[in-house]
User: Fold this.
Amino acid sequence: MKHLIHIIVLLLCSAISAGASVSFTVQAPRQVNEGSKFNVTFVLKNAEGSGFVAPDIPGATKLYGPALSTSYSQSWVNGKSSSSSSQEYTMIYKATKQGRLNVGAAVVDVNGRRMTTKPFTIEVLPPDKAANSQPRSLQEEQRQHERRGVQYDDPITQSADKAVTGNDIFVRIEMSKPRVYEQQAVVCTIKLYTKYQVSQFIPTLQPSFDGFLIEEIPMQPSLNNVETFNGQQYMVAVLKKCILYPQQSGKLTITSGNYDVNVVQYENYRTIFGTLSQPVEKKLVVKSNTATVNILPLPEPKPADFTGAVGHFTVATSINPTPLKTYQAATYSYVITGTGNLKYIKAPVVAFPKQMDVYDPKTNVKVNPASGDMSGSVQIDYPFIPQFAGEFTIPASNFTYFDPETGKYVSVPVPQQPLKVAKGEGAPSNHYRLQNMDIRHLHQGDLHLSKTHTFVIDDWRYWMAFVLPALLMAALMVYYRKQLRQRADVRLMRNKRASKVAQRRLKQARASMNKGDQTAFYADLLTAMWGYMSDKLSIPVSELDKENIQSELTAYGVDPELTQQAMALLDKCEFAQYAPELAHGDMAPVLDEAATLIGKLENVKRAKTQPS
Assistant:
């Protein structure tokens, strides 16, 4: 698992080196005491190195190294992502004589390219007798180190049998000020304090800055400083440094972060050659503290021309080009210079003459994050096009900002800007005409005004709007219920469909007649007549015969003569179907006779049933 993490970190370092600048530098103290131990760290940024060769230092003895540590960091600030990596090769030396130590160049290979550091010198001062008193045995040496505790520059005190406590390595969030105003800058610094060498450092949860706008100060974390905290000395690396601009009043808290850290401890052995140390890595999870800042609200009432600027500023204005001509573009530049929340200042409102076609302003910010705030300038360009020739004026105004040191608003006068516009070529733009068309054409003629008032509920049309839809809905419901009753009556539905079904069957008989198929014609015609009688008279197919048909026709109220015609037609069809060789004559009159008979029967109204 440890090798897999190393591979992932190295791959990330290779990806970063493709887009970031690669450097190889050295970090070391400029002065040491004779007999004391000191660290020399060679830092390779944003690249993966191999074949590291440390320089020899005449006048100093190498105690340990090189110890390789790899770190990778990534941050997301104000919607922008940034990442960096470093490889640190740490050497521990002991100064053996006074004078100057000449440290030569270290060498490392980066993707086939040889990189070296710059040579430098270290001044060795006279020895500190109290610090360099040597014990006589390993046991006495260990007892002395136990009394002294873990020392960042002494591997013997960093033995592997000791537990690494929160007093030996921790991450601390520091705020430059405990109390600020809204939009006033406060510097947040996140530092790593350690008494052990760090071989790997990976942030797993970054602190959150809710309620702040962030301007991060670019830097590369490295253990290159020594600081005293609570009376103890630590190697210190600045992990993150940023300028925060609070956006709301009250108590804002920066949450803690989590970090996976691998520290280097040593297994110490006493030999005839002295004390030897074997490095051992230990994985830890380090959690930072939280930090709070009290945010004071900006004083009320705020000036009308206050645009959110907090800090110290000056203002200058200019117009380009000059002289001005109608229908030609020009720019009114409003430049704010100073130190403060330059990026977050809103564009001031400029009162241009109505004869100008004015467009949305454009902002260009040039700032440098200094140690405690942003300094630089912001230029706000107001594009405009003169529409008429003549002499005009952009009136004088004030730029107001809040000074957090005095706790008061400061107004910087902005002088008026005269505009002398000469006649140019072109015509007024549509944008200008629409902007300045504040008076519309007046309506003329009879407006049909009346002093009388009529209530809507007194108008009959108002009530009809309710009555007519109600009546229509009632009629639809009656019709729908009638249809449901009719569809439930099977006999009635058969009676209604009798004529339509018969007509379809007569069409089939006509098709057989057109083919000259006399047998099929009479069969289709007979089927149509039998089917019609069954549907019209509601006679089941099993009971369908001539006697029943004749009696049902009479009961239905059909005239006896029409009944005889129907029976004669049925006889003719049966005779022609079962004795086709005896049938003769044209088939068309027979088909017409059947259609006529069905039409007459459809016009007959059912006789009312007499009560018994």
